[in-house]
Amino acid sequence: MSNLDNRIANADQLLTTDIDKFCESATELYSNISKPVLDIFIYVYRLTVNLGGKTPSILMLYLLFAGIFLTRLRRPTGRLTVEEQKLEGEFRYVNSRLITNSEEVAFYQGNVREKLTLLASYSKLRSHLRKFLEFRVSMGIVDNIVGKYFASIVGFYAVSIPFFTKNHPLLSGEQSGQRLQAYYTYGRMLIKLAEAIGRLVLAGREMSRLAGFTARMTELIKVLGDLNKGTYERTMVNGNSLTPNGDGDASAAAGSFGPNKGIMCFEDNIIRFEKVPLVTPNGDVLLKELTFEVKSGTNVLVCGPNGCGKSSLFRILGELWPTWGGKVTKPSRGKLFYIPQRPYMTLGSLRDQIIYPHTRDDMRRLGRSDEDLLHFLDIVQLTYLEQRENGLDAIEDWIDVLSGGEKQRIAMARLFYHKPQFAILDECTSAVSVDVEGKMYSYCREAGITLFTVSHRKSLWVHHDYYLQFDGRGNYEFETIDQDKEHFGS
Question: Which residues touch 76 (CB under 8 Å, ≥6 apart)?
């Protein structure tokens, strides 16, 4: 969602906080409405039987008009609730971003700059909350006046009507004491009815707040549904980058160029791009057409400057980004494996780091054993981890325990365990020594794992058969590697 669609900002806030508040508000609404509705039904029935329909009818009309009046006054509540959650999400994002990158901020001495960003986000949230609270206080005063005091006044007036009516059929012939007793009894009933109506009117306050959360939930469900169908909405870049021909005429190419306009075919042991443009989700064309074919057993070295399209190529291969044209032939997603420069270390044991995302039961179903995992650790020269950490069942905070090079070697052991048809290695051996790196690449060749490697290390040329080089200006070159020549600059 964060990559493809910009209708929702800070989706994590929606998934963690807003859903919880929506559910809490919905359950409170039931308890706030069910009891008053039951009271209203009972008292209206009793008063109608004893005093006729005029008295409860006046109160029900008051309920109707009071509800309409308060609903119109509360109209901004839903919008203010949505804005509150949005600003709270932005503030949480700024905090989490600062925590994640605290070391880099300290190195750059960016504390003053980050403090300004943090305070700006906090100030917006605080000023909005102050405005929202002022609105809620004023609405609370109006709610109490309309839902309690005016309701009681109207109630006493309504219950008094029969007692001021001459020759009322229910009260004729009664003594003054009996009439006073009846007035007190029905007056109490009417007060209870007025209180129930007041509680129901006040419950509209929660309904207005719930409406804001409901709008957020509805938008989340809609966007997730659209993404699952392969459609998304994103603000497109302006200018000539909207068409592969660079002529700026987006409508002319609309039939063959656009999100999900490309063809995706699935076939084992081959990756083929046929006139596929590399385009970011916001419509920025990095490469007009890309055509190449790689079969299993043919390793490819991918290089080029930052922002030239390397990551876009891999995101299209991983089906994370849509194809804007052409035809892509590739194995199914489960037969591709991606290893980034900073590999992800999951929570759990040392075994879990190697078999991720599989569980131990998955490992057994595949016929793998702990001896296989130790063999993979031996290839990447990490057997000392198993001895140092008391076996494969050792549980540590692996993100902090392992060095950068150890994490990269764990990721390569993970690759050997899964043994996919194709693997994308994105600078994932940058912190590994050349001899260990060569051993890992040799094992991939033996295991039949075909590699797409992003790297500028000259030592890797011997392990690859082709190179795919982007120049960052919309051109590329796909040629056989000549081991006697240097194809790549720095």
Answer: 135
Shared-domain flag, residues 83 and 153: yes
CA dihedral 330, 336, 341, 344 (to 10 degrees): 140
DSSP string, 258-276: STT-SEEEE-TTEEEEEEE
Could you list the residue range(s) of the whole structural domain that residue 308 is in?
Answer: 255-490
198 and 147 Cβ atoms separated by less than 8 Å: yes
Strands 300-303 and 285-295: unpaired
pLDDT in tens, 386-412: 887 678 888 888 888 888 889 889 989
Encoded amino acid at 453, one letter:
T
Q: Label residue 281 left, alpha or beta by phi (over 0 means left) and psi (-120 to 50 means alpha).
A: alpha
In the chain, DSSP finds a helix count (H) and a strand count (E) of 16, 10
With contact defined as beta carbons under 8 Å apart, do 422 and 336 qualify?
A: yes
Please give the C-alpha separations between residue 206 and each of 86, 123, 145, 201, 216, in angstroms, as whole numbers.
19, 26, 17, 10, 16
Of 421, 478, 469, 468, the C-alpha closest to 444 is 421
In a domain, 243, yes or no: no
Using CA atoms, how far apart are residues 287 and 244, in angstroms rounded to an integer?
Answer: 8
Q: Token match 């999100």: residue?
A: 259
| Domain CATH code at residue 17 | 1.20.1560.10
Q: Which string of DSSP letters, residue by residue, matches 13-53?
A: HIIIIIHHHHHHHHHHHHHHHHHHHHHHHHHHHHHHHHH-S
User: Looking at the domain assignment, is residue 237 inside a domain?
Assistant: no
Over the stretch 288-344, which tens digit does the pLDDT of each residue have?
889 999 999 999 988 888 778 788 888 888 887 888 888 999 998 888 888 887 887
Question: How distant is the alpha carbon of residue 384 from its chain centre?
Answer: 39
